[in-house]
Specification:
Elements lengths: L8 E4 L2 E2 L11 E5 L2 E6 L1 H5 L7 E4 L4 E4 L1 E6 L1 H7 L3 E2 L6 H13 L7 E6 L12 H7 L5 E5 L4 E4 L1 H6 L12 E5 L5 E7 H7 L7 H17 L2 E10 L4 H13 L6 E7 L3 H7 L10 E9 L28 H13 L4 E5 L2 H13 L10 E5 L5 H8 L3 E5 L2 H5 L1 H8 L9 H7 L2 E4 L10 H10 L19 H7 L2 H6 L17 E4 L16 E6 L2 E5 L1
Parallel strand pairs: 1-5, 2-6, 7-14, 8-9, 9-10, 14-15, 15-16, 16-17, 17-18, 18-19, 19-20
Antiparallel strand pairs: 1-3, 3-4, 6-21, 10-11, 11-13, 12-13, 21-22, 22-23
Helix pairs in contact: 2-7, 3-4, 7-8
The chain binds zinc ion.
Zinc ion binds next to loops.
Length: about 525
C-alpha cells in the first residue's frame, strides 16, 4: 500500500496501547489512505518511510486507539454548548442568578433554554418552580432541563406558550406537577416536558451544522474519534442531526465516525425502506433502533423489582414489554439491531428474558444492546453474560449519582453499575457518556469506572469499590467495547494493520499514574482517519 512514496504518516517513539494481541509492545505505526499499514517497533516502521512521509516523534508518550463514545446525543450536546449551562449551579439562588444574568443579555421575548441543574447536589435539595424563574426572567420564556433530561422546569411564559394551564391533563407517560390550588408549579416530568420543549423554536439546519463543526473540535480535544448517536433518525432531534451529518459528510467535513440510531417509532418505516444496521461508510452509518423500556432513577420512573425507599411505587414501564418484544422480532428479522433503554432492576430482568426468547439472535450480526443496564441483580447479570447482547453503560454516572442512588435505593444501590461483576461474568460492556446528560470527557468516565470516586476523591475508598474495573478495562470499554457494540470490530477499536487510523496521544501514562489523576489527562494529539485533527 505504501508504494514507492511510502506511508503518509509515521508516528514513532510512543508507547502504544494497541489492544492487538499480535503487536502488544509496539512503539510506532505507519498510516496510508486513512488506515494503519504497519504497527511495530521504531526501526521496522521507520524503515518504511518515503520522501513524502511525515514522521512524528511521540517522545515516549502513551498512545490509545481513538476513543468512541457509545452513547451520546451529539446534536443536543453540540447545541447545548451554546445554551445556558446550569451544571455548575450550586443552589436554587445561584440558578436564579444565572438565569437573570442570561436574561439581561437576551432580547426580551426570546427563549432562554438551559440544562444541567441537579437539585440533589444542593444543600437545600428543592426543585426550582415557575415562580423562581418568573422572578429571574419576567420578560422571557424560560425552559430548563434537569441534568437527567427526564424532567424540566418552565416559567409562566413558557407554560403559556406550551398551552399548559390548570385545566391541562397530564399527557400519557408524563406528569405536570401542581400546587395545592391545582396550578402547574412549572415542574414537568417525562413526556410532559416535551410539551414545552416542542414549542421552543427549532435551531436551523445551518445552526446545527455550525454547532456540530465546533463540537467536533471540542471532541477531538478529548480524544474522541467516534460516537454512537442515540438521538435518533426519525425523532424530532434526529432528523436535523442526520441531515447535518450527511451535509458534513458530503463536504468531507465529518471528522468523527457517527453511528446513527433510528427512533423506535420509525421501525416500520425503516423496515419498509430496507434499511439495515451498519449501512453507510467509514464516516456515517445507520445504527440501532432505539426503544425506551423505562424512565430514570432521578424521576423515580425507572422500573424496579421493589418500591423505592422514598416513594410508594416501583416506577413504571414506558413501553409495554410485549410491544418491545414484538418490535425486536420485527427489527431482528429485517437486519436491524435494537438498543433498549433499561435502568431499573425489573426492566433489566424483563429485557434479559426478552432477549433470551429471541431465537434468531444471530451472533454474526451487529449485536442488540441494553442502554444503561444501570441497576441489575447479580442473577440477571449472569443471564445477560450468556447472550450476544451488549451492556452500554456510562461510568461517569456512577459518581454523579451517588447521593441519588443511596436515597432512592438504600443498600440496593449496590446493584447499580455492576461493572466488575459484568466483566467477570463475561458481559460485553461498551462505555459512553450520555452527553449532554453528562460531560463527554472519556477520561472522566474512565476515572469513575476505575476509582468509583468523584474527581474530588469522595467518597473515600470508592462507592461500592468491589465494582471497580482496571484502567485497561476502562480503556477497552471506550474503544474496542464500543467498536464491537456497533459491529465495527474489524475496522476500529485497536491499533492494528488494516484498521482505520484513529488514535490519541496522551500527556501522561494513565496505566502508570495514580488512578486518582486519570481525570486530569490531557490529549496532546488526536489522529482521525490518518490525519492529525488536533494538536495541543
Ligand atoms: Zn441517552
Amino acid at each position: 500500500m505504501e508504494g514507492a512514496v511510502g506511508p503518509e504518516l509515521i508516528l514513532y517513539n510512543g508507547r502504544l496501547h494497541t489492544q492487538d494481541p499480535d503487536s502488544q509492545r509496539a512503539s510506532a505505526a505507519a498510516v496510508a489512505h486513512g488506515r494503519f499499514t504497519a504497527v511495530g517497533d521504531d526501526a521496522e516502521v521507520l524503515e518504511l518511510a518515503g520522501p513524502q512521509t511525515r514522521c512524528i516523534d511521540l517522545e515516549g508518550r502513551r498512545v490509545l486507539p481513538g476513543l468512541i463514545d457509545a452513547h451520546c446525543h451529539l446534536r443536543s450536546w453540540a447545541l447545548s454548548r451554546r445554551r445556558l449551562s446550569l451544571v455548575e449551579a450550586e443552589s436554587l439562588e445561584d440558578l436564579r442568578r444565572r438565569v437573570a444574568a442570561r436574561a439581561a443579555e437576551t432580547e426580551p421575548g426570546a427563549w432562554i433554554v438551559g440544562q444541567g441543574w441537579n437539585e440533589t447536589r444542593w444543600q437545600n435539595p428543592e426543585k426550582p418552580t415557575r415562580k423562581d424563574l418568573d422572578a429571574a426572567a419576567p420578560e422571557h420564556p424560560v425552559f430548563l432541563w434537569r441534568s437527567d433530561c427526564h424532567l424540566a422546569v418552565a416559567n409562566t411564559r413558557a407554560l403559556e406558550a406550551a398551552g399548559i394551564d390548570p385545566e391541562t391533563p397530564d399527557p400519557p407517560q408524563g406528569r405536570i406537577d401542581r400546587d395545592e390550588s391545582g396550578r402547574p408549579t412549572g415542574v414537568l416530568r417525562e413526556l410532559a416536558a416535551n410539551c414545552a420543549r416542542d414549542v421552543v423554536p427549532v435551531p436551523s439546519e445551518e445552526e446545527t451544522v455550525d454547532a456540530l463543526r465546533e463540537g467536533f473540535g471540542a471532541l477531538h480535544r478529548l480524544g474522541l474519534t467516534g460516537v454512537h448517536d442515540h438521538r435518533s433518525m426519525g425523532g424530532s432531534d434526529g432528523q436535523p442531526a442526520f441531515r447535518a451529518y450527511e451535509r458534513l459528510r458530503s463536504a468531507g467535513e465529518l471528522e468523527l465516525r457517527v453511528w446513527m440510531g433510528i427512533n423506535g417509532q420509525r421501525l416500520d418505516d425503516a423496515v419498509a425502506l430496507g434499511l439495515r444496521s451498519g449501512f453507510g461508510d467509514r464516516y456515517l452509518r445507520v445504527g440501532h433502533v432505539k426503544f425506551f423500556a423505562d424512565g430514570s432513577l432521578g424521576a423515580r420512573t425507572a422500573w424496579m423489582l421493589e418500591p423505592y425507599e422514598d416513594a410508594d411505587d416501583a416506577g413504571m414501564p414506558i413501553t409495554p414489554m410485549e410491544e418491545i418484544a414484538e418490535a425486536v422480532r420485527k427489527a431482528d428479522a429485517a437486519g436491524l439491531a435494537v438498543a433498549v433503554h433499561g435502568i431499573g432492576t425489573r426492566t433489566n430482568r424483563e429485557l434479559v428474558t426478552l432477549f433470551e426468547e429471541q431465537a434468531s439472535l444471530n451472533p454474526g450480526r451487529i449485536p442488540h444492546r441494553i442502554e444503561h443496564a444501570q441497576i441489575m441483580r447479580p442473577a440477571d447479570v449472569e443471564r445477560l453474560s450468556r447472550l450476544p447482547v451488549v451492556a452500554s453503560a456510562q461510568p461517569i454516572h456512577v459518581t454523579d449519582d451517588v447521593p441519588l442512588s443511596d436515597v432512592a435505593l438504600g443498600d440496593r444501590a449496590r446493584f447499580c453499575y455492576p461493572f466488575r461483576h459484568m466483566l467477570d461474568a463475561g458481559v460485553h460492556l461498551a462505555f459512553g457518556s450520555d452527553a449532554p446528560v453528562a460531560d463527554p470527557n472519556p477520561f472522566w468516565g474512565m476515572h469513575a469506572a476505575v476509582t468509583r470516586q468523584k474527581r474530588d476523591g469522595t467518597p473515600a475508598g470508592g462507592w461500592y469499590p468491589e465494582q471497580r474495573v482496571s484502567v485497561a478495562e476502562a480503556v477497552w470499554g471506550f474503544t474496542m467495547g464500543a467498536a464491537l457494540a456497533s459491529g465495527q470490530g474489524a475496522d476500529l477499536g485497536t491499533i492494528s494493520p488494516g484498521k482505520l487510523a484513529d488514535l490519541v496521544v496522551l500527556d501522561r501514562d494513565i496505566f502508570a499514574i495514580e488512578p486518582a489523576g486519570i481525570h486530569k489527562t490531557q490529549v496532546i494529539m488526536t489522529v482521525f482517519d490518518g490525519r492529525v485533527v488536533y494538536e495541543a
